[in-house]
Design goal:
Order of helices and strands of chain A: HHHHEHHEHEHEEHEHEHEHEHEHEE
CATH architecture of the largest domain in chain A: 3-Layer(aba) Sandwich
Helix content of chain A: 40-55%
Distance between the termini of chain A: 69 Å
CATH superfamily of the largest domain in chain A: Response regulator
Number of helices of chain A: 14
Structural class of chain A: alpha/beta
CATH topology of the largest domain in chain A: Rossmann fold
Shape of chain A: elongated
Oligomer: homodimer
Radius of gyration of chain A: 26 Å
Chain lengths: 339, 339
Amino acid sequence: MSRPQPQKRATVHDIAAAAGMSRGTVSRVLNGGYVSAEARAAIEAAMSDLGYVPNNAARALKMRRSQAVAFVALEPHSLFLDDPNIGSIMLGANAALSLADHQMVSLVVESARDTERVARYLSGGFVDGAIVVSARTKDPIIRVISDLSLPAAFVGHPPDLDQTIPFVGIDNVGSARAITEHLVTTGRRRIGMIAAALDRDSGIDRLAGFRDALGPLFDDELVSDVPHYDYGSGVKGMRDLLEREPAIDGVFAASDAIAAGALEALREAGRSVPGDVGVVGFDDSTWAVRCQPQLTTVHQPAKEIGSCAAQLILRQLRGEHPDPGGQLLPTPLVLRDSA
Amino acid sequence: MSRPQPQKRATVHDIAAAAGMSRGTVSRVLNGGYVSAEARAAIEAAMSDLGYVPNNAARALKMRRSQAVAFVALEPHSLFLDDPNIGSIMLGANAALSLADHQMVSLVVESARDTERVARYLSGGFVDGAIVVSARTKDPIIRVISDLSLPAAFVGHPPDLDQTIPFVGIDNVGSARAITEHLVTTGRRRIGMIAAALDRDSGIDRLAGFRDALGPLFDDELVSDVPHYDYGSGVKGMRDLLEREPAIDGVFAASDAIAAGALEALREAGRSVPGDVGVVGFDDSTWAVRCQPQLTTVHQPAKEIGSCAAQLILRQLRGEHPDPGGQLLPTPLVLRDSA
DNA sequence: TACGGATGTGTGAACGTGCACACAGTAGGA
DNA sequence: TCCTACTGTGTGCACGTTCACACATCCGTA
């Protein structure tokens, strides 16, 4: 009696009894099959009378399908702050799953406690698959998914641990190379980078692309590395670069938020953009159009990434085995005013 | 054969057989009860051997408890853009639920299609309760929750439809009054407001508080209303106000994002802040410290709001009936440089 | 000796579904 | 006339779990 039972709800039995039919017929009304018009009418009347709603838990148990897919956001705290794209990725995934009549459920993992509980949740039959955002290689969630062979898709970077899990992302190296080349071809010569999150693939790859594009022009002294993809880091990073090389005339910021911070630091220092210094960002987030001047940047197709990840799951649920190589989406350059 | 069955997983039966025990004993190992040391050891060995994970769907069916609580975000598209607090609210709720060993699952409702599917999901026994963010009065989700008498809590504004559902929020009227009074007491005389979202309670209440605080100083001409709580709206709203009243010396922006936009418009117009014009915002979001000058604003305790909503659910799950009046959290003024 | 309580274990039923199967009636063709 | 096909309906079982109950053993005490 300590735990009050939730109020009793109508079941197939109840509406079968009310309609004077058997459970089987009710089931056929719900799931298709031969049912006479009168029987259907009687049953539908009973259903709306008693306010019947099918019990998903029972259905999932029997069918071994829940029609739900998890969207697992690891370290969301930093994600929400650093990456304005996470919301768009979620909405993209939701839209795609929605079309296939699947429910997306987002789970956030902040603590070790969360990790364990989410692992239990994923293994428990409440979801048919999982989209995992920004996992680190070592993350225990990956092991669980791998052991369970739960249909999964990774967003952002490949799960080194299990090569059979597909992923979707962008070509960070190529995109960074392309936007850096834009700085070069517009005549910049002393080009620096504010590199962030060098403990993640995205951070490492953007730096690699930068170095790649500059070739002999590359100067180790002109790379300032900051911990996060955020505004504050941008301010700090830019001040740092200005101190090291006052003659700097081009900057590649590893994210739009960082670029926004860099603009602020440049304004402080009395440099004009793009006159004295050309600045480019990465993400094409809301930051890009908010800045003064608006940012030239790399467009991240966040919505498409989400929907692509969803497709990877749906395909696995249909029994297809997507090629494990992973999928890279195009990232067009967006030319605005900052470089 | 069109739909491949997910791979067969170990059940209590399997591990009972492997350990030479009965299902009952296995259940007792999992849920507590009298079990001898040897039996426990044998069963635990079998469990790790076979990689056993309990099936939540079956447990939920039998127990009528899923240990999961939904976090329903209505119109998340505008939320993610407008309200930087939604993430913090989520994390606050998750932390509180996590402590009670409940899984939070976020559901996103964008389309009519989503509404229906989420309603089904909520009624289906996959969750024990629901936290609903920013519902409008007419939202069909409210009806579903009400009909089901699913334990629920609303965030942000009271569900007019069903007064038995508790809510948690802030005193928008009082907070707006307080911050407006700050403008008055610091000597501003021609004070305007950029009011947003006048189709929501939050928008209406903030305007009411503003009017309240000004009393005879209030001038209808000095209110510019914009659709959303975002940066662009702030720029537009401020330009509008400057045109109507060039002598304006104080502005209450309905959100920090709007305030940031207003600062931009003021800079364009060559006004200094706080010298010529004092500007105050609302939310104490990341915008507040990013701006130049940093914003004087109203602190929204987003994390606490989330955790408070979670508590309201947990309390209902324990069988208590929280007073339906709702709960308003304190919103301290944060004095920075913009006014 | 007999009894009550504590400890340990097995068994059957139920949670609410969906599906395979069985059955009944009708119609059409060989 | 019989066999088959199609439509419509009812019944039993299984999904994997928990819980109530029955049973079994051991101990201390009346």
